[in-house]
Amino acid sequence: MLLCVCLPTLFDMSHYLFTYGTLQPGANLGFFEQHHLEQYLTCVGKGSVSGELVHIKNTQQKIEYPGLIGLRSASTQVHGTVFEVRDREAVFPIMDPHEGYTPGLSITESRQKNYYERKEVEVMLADTHRKIVAEAYLFNPDSEYAHSDFIKRLASVSSGDWLEYVTKMGL
């Protein structure tokens, strides 16, 4: 006899994206709308991951943005927004170049060339305290781009909340 048991938390086939900076609702960047990606994304809610949030300034483009350095054993949390991704093939080919990420490189090439790396992270959802796996763009401090003269790593964002930080700093 075959028994079927519904276990959505164990066999959830959804794909998720964790955003922690300028791509969050309220950041006023409008990237998803500019590229018509909102049709492929559903906002799930707030969440957090273990890691360190750093403030980065690009003096060449005159912009400031955050970088998440993933640290599995970190006691600090980075707060952000989780989206369900309904069509990975529509979303990531547009997002990857925006984030300075080229998929398919060897590990050595990726460490040198990718400014951010798209990796899976464990996210704790704020409302349900359920853990999910989501993809996120993590800052790669070892990349050639990160070591260029016009990239400045300014500070660690101790609150782990980019939107709160930019409001407090008047950015």
Overall description:
The structure is a single chain. With 171 residues, the chain is of the alpha+beta class. The chain is 18% helix and 38% strand. It has four helices and seven strands, in the order βαβββααβββα. Strands 1, 2, 3, 4, 5, 6 and 7 form a seven-stranded antiparallel β-sheet that branches. Strand 2 (41-58) and strand 3 form a beta hairpin. Mean pLDDT is 86; it is low at 1-11.
Topology:
Blueprint: E1 15-19, H1 31-34, E2 41-58, E3 63-70, E4 77-85, H2 88-98, H3 107-113, E5 116-125, E6 131-139, E7 151-156, H4 162-169
Give short descriptive properties of this protein.
171 residues; alpha+beta; seven-stranded antiparallel β-sheet; 4 helices; disordered N terminus
Number of strands: 7
Question: Helical content, roughly?
Answer: 10-25%
**What share of residues are in beta strands?**
35-45%
Describe the main β-sheet briefly: 7 strands, antiparallel
Order of helices and strands: EHEEEHHEEEH
Helix and strand composition category: alpha+beta
Low-pLDDT residue intervals, each spanning 5 or more residues: 1-11
Write down the Rg: 17 Å
**What shape does the CA trace take?**
globular
What is the mean pLDDT?
A: 86
Termini separation: 63 Å
Number of helices: 4
Summarize the structure.
The chain has 171 residues and is of the alpha+beta class.
